[in-house]
Design goal:
The protein is of the alpha/beta class. The protein contains 15 helices and ten strands. It has an eight-stranded mixed beta sheet with strand order 1-10-6-9-5-2-3-4, with helices on both faces. Strands 7-8 form a two-stranded antiparallel sheet. The radius of gyration is 21 Å and the shape is globular. About 45% of the residues are buried. This is Glycosyl transferase.
Length: about 400
């Protein structure tokens, strides 16, 4: 059972009473009369053939308060898109699939490139960005949720708890982040959050001094979770990172654009398991190796916008500070796991910390060597200013893909 402490800068919604999902859903149906709700599902086609997504769709089919579900489909050819249309057809909600590799959306993507507004490399950030644009164009939802499509332990209560704080008409939250313990098959998981992000934030406090931004990020119990809900206006103004820094980048944009009183987090599950990324020690373009690089760069970029200057010497100091803090945390996690009857491989944990420490230095070098890097996809406010009718044409393209010949 979750504790009740409010010990960070943002409001924390706990799971104190295990309230039945049916009660939460009855409330959400009432809230939906004033604040209609939609859901974004960023997906690779391969996830339609995986062990998680079919069960997720079965659960979503029971959700009574969603008006709209938008699926962003990546890496799909024509036959795979047609398969996806059938796969999601059992959803009773207004459901649309963005065929991101289809000719209609590719044409719009090329047009954005001509204006210097392209969504950069394919990936989750680009997928979410296009889904957000479609949500803005559809005008169906005033509250939008988002979660991944590889959750093996999915239950619709997860979504109900995620949406509740933003959907409640008497609450004033614009954004809600989900959290949960990363435990599965008797193991303590979540290495990047536990062993990289938490000790890195605390090392940055030591090296850069206390900063409200770092205290803010350190208030999130699971800053890398892929589950969040937000008001529609959030979608218009935020700039989404195109790389693995998506979650940290979104939190950073929220801190810049909104009062902390409008941001909260919620306990959405007793346990959570999904597809695990490999460490990929020898491949800096994939797995936890790439993820840790992108997260570090996202943090450095944000701190630079707040006037923090970095040098090569600073990054070496940061690496050493981080490494000591991370090793101390491994011991704490090992003891916590032991008392709870969970397993934790200290050798693998220390190998991960060594990789992350090395990547802090590499990310610093990349940051210093590429001052003109454009890491963010432009906000939809900017796109609408440059190409005023693009959202309407995107909506038409998606409708034609979903209801006509492709």
């Amino acid at each position: 059972m979750s504790d009740f402490h409010q010990n960070g800068l943002i409001t924390d919604f706990h799971n104190l009473t295990r309230r039945p999902v049916e009660e939460l859903e009855r409330d959400l149906v009432r809230f939906g009369a004033r604040r209609p709700m939609g859901l974004i599902l960023p997906s690779l086609f391969s996830e339609l053939e995986g062990p998680a997504l079919s069960a997720i769709v079965d659960e979503l089919a029971k959700v009574p308060y969603l008006d709209e579900i938008v699926i962003g489909l990546d890496r799909a050819d024509r036959e795979q898109f047609l398969f996806a249309r059938e796969f999601f057809a059992r959803l009773p909600q207004h459901t649309r699939i963005l065929w991101n590799d289809g000719p209609r959306l590719r044409a719009l993507d090329a047009e954005l490139d001509e204006h210097g507004l392209g969504a950069l490399e394919p990936g989750k950030g680009r997928n979410v960005w296009y889904c957000a644009g479609y949500m803005l164009a559809s005008h169906r939802s005033s509250v939008v949720g988002l979660h991944d499509c590889d959750i093996l332990t999915y239950d619709r209560a997860l979504l109900a708890r995620l949406m509740y704080p933003v959907a409640h008409p008497q609450f004033d939250y614009s954004f809600c982040k989900g959290y949960y313990p990363r435990i599965a098959e008797g193991r303590l998981n979540g290495r990047v959050s536990r062993l990289m992000v938490t000790p890195l934030l605390r090392a940055l406090k030591t090296v850069c001094g206390p900063l409200p931004y770092l205290d803010y990020l350190d208030s999130f119990r699971y800053p890398l979770s892929g589950e969040f809900a937000m008001r529609r206006d959030v979608l218009e103004g935020i700039r989404i990172p195109a790389d693995w820094g998506l979650e940290i980048g979104v939190l950073s944009e929220l801190q810049r654009n909104y009062s902390l009183r409008q941001i909260c987090q919620v306990d959405i599950a007793d346990g959570y398991d999904h597809k695990h990324q490999p460490v990929s020690e020898d491949d800096p373009t994939g797995g936890l190796n790439r993820m840790s690089l992108d997260i570090a760069k996202a943090l450095y970029r944000k701190l630079a916008t707040q006037g923090i200057t970095f040098s090569s010497e600073d990054f070496r100091t940061l690496k050493a500070t981080y490494y000591r803090l991370a090793l101390d945390l491994i011991e704490a996690y090992d003891h916590d796991a032991t008392m709870n009857g969970l397993s934790l491989d200290r050798h693998c944990e220390e190998q991960a910390v060594e990789l992350f420490a090395s990547n802090l230095l590499e990310a610093g070098n990349l940051f210093l060597d590429n001052p003109r890097e454009r890491p963010f996809i432009p906000s939809w406010n900017r796109v609408q200013a440059a190409v005023p009718n693009l959202l309407a044409r995107m909506h038409e393209a998606v409708e034609r893909d979903n209801q006509g010949d492709v």
